[in-house]
Design goal:
The chain contains 11 helices and 20 strands. It is of the alpha/beta class. It has 2 domains: 206 residues, TIM Barrel (Alpha-Beta Barrel), CATH 3.20.20.10; 127 residues, Lyase, Ornithine Decarboxylase, Chain A, domain 1 (Beta Barrel). The strands form 4 sheets. An 8-stranded parallel β-barrel has the order 2-3-4-5-6-7-8-9, surrounded by 4 helices. β6, α7 and β7 form a beta-alpha-beta unit.
Length: 375
């Protein structure tokens, strides 16, 4: 555990050793030649995209996955040359950058590929793309019944080429789920039809973190791992199957400690009042940093292995916790929002549960204002 950075008394510590451990765990579930795509969108799920991408590559990642063109450009600007898959549909205005920065787009309809081919022709380059098949997620992609016809049509375009085909599971985190099995069956039929027509589908991929852990038949040529890479489980069913180490911990230091009398309130609206005289510890960490305001009064923080109740409403830049007057906590005392402290721990899953959300959202909400310290 490091000391606080210069400009904030709150920070996030990122354990790159834990990240490498998780990637090894995930890769051990795949066949030796299976490619590994590390999903680093949303600033690496809040962990810092560039540092995570570099560490993932060192740990054996072959591809990186992002959601926006700017996310890909950030990686290229940092000198990262590995293949990058753009997993969401970008606007037409970014096609030049997609080609310039050697970004591989994921295509969800024929019009996208036709437009990309036109820009590629003007640039004098031949651009690869991955074609997405909508097997039931109903978010993006071509219907299985249309896939063979579409692939035949697009194969005629001289300035683009099919580099891969994929789908995405909606329910893979539930072991033995019928819908996931049905999606996999539909995707396998599409790939078989493409190959029987004499067309190479390129890199075939379907497995997200959950499917990488629970659905080995979905691994194909490449797996795409996001949440599990960060040491967070995609669902309850994966917890008994694979060991993962949390990558992020969140720390803060007390800005002020002061006593209040019985009946005095704390924070906006004074929705919490002291039932007995106590001490209030103000921590410089708030919803602008990703502390969920909806969980006001439900959160806890660790100090010296003990849990302290967060009281009152979470503010933009501060939260308050209650201590007893004889606890002898002083300004500068270290508290843990997420992580371990003297044998006690608070997980990101616990925070998510109290906020009535999922661990993905908590991780992505922990904003860049929290300086990342990499260990």
């Amino acid at each position: 555990m490091h000391s606080a950075p210069k400009y904030r008394q709150s920070w996030a510590e990122i354990d790159l050793g834990a990240l490498a451990f998780n990637i090894r765990q995930l890769k051990s579930r795949t066949k030796p030649n299976t490619l590994f795509l590390a999903v680093v969108k949303a600033d690496g799920y809040g962990h810092g995209a560039v540092a995570i991408a570099r560490a993932a590559i060192r740990a054996g990642a072959h591809w990186l996955g992002v959601a926006t063109v700017l996310e890909a450009i950030e990686l290229r600007a940092a000198g990262i040359e590995h293949p990058i898959l753009l997993m969401s549909r970008p606007p037409r205005s970014t096609f030049e950058e997609i080609i310039e920065f050697n970004i591989t787009p994921l295509a969800s309809d024929p019009d996208f590929v036709y437009e990309l081919a036109g820009v590629a022709q003007l640039s004098g380059k031949r651009v690869g793309y991955h074609l997405k098949i909508n097997t039931g997620m109903n978010r993006l992609g071509i219907r299985p019944a249309e896939a063979l016809r579409v692939v035949h049509e697009l194969a005629e375009l001289p300035h683009v080429h099919l580099e891969g085909m994929c789908t995405h599971f909606a329910t893979a985190e539930v072991e033995g789920d019928w819908d996931a099995s049905n999606q996999l069956h539909q995707f396998e039929e599409v790939i078989s039809a493409i190959r029987e027509a004499g067309i190479d589908p390129g890199i075939v991929h379907a497995a997200n973190s959950a499917a990488t852990i629970l659905l080995p038949d979905s691994h194909f040529d490449m797996v795409r791992c996001g949440i599990a890479m960060y040491g967070l489980h995609p669902g309850e069913d994966t917890k008994a199957v694979i060991t993962l180490k949390p990558v992020m911990s969140v720390y803060t230091q007390a800005a002020m400690v002061h006593p209040i009398a019985m009946g005095e309130g704390v924070s906006y609206g004074l929705v919490w009042r002291a039932e007995i005289p106590c001490a209030i510890v103000t921590l410089p960490l708030g919803y602008a940093d990703g502390v969920p305001r909806i969980a006001s009064g439900l959160l806890e923080f660790l100090h010296n292995g003990r849990r302290f109740e967060q009281v009152g409403r979470v503010c933009m830049d501060m939260v308050m916790v209650r201590a007893m007057q004889n606890d002898r906590i002083e300004a500068g005392a270290r508290f843990v929002m997420i992580g371990q402290d003297d044998g006690a721990s608070i997980s990101m899953d616990e925070v998510a549960q109290k906020a009535d959300t999922i661990n993905y959202e908590i991780a992505c909400s922990l904003g860049r204002r929290l300086e990342r310290i990499y260990v």
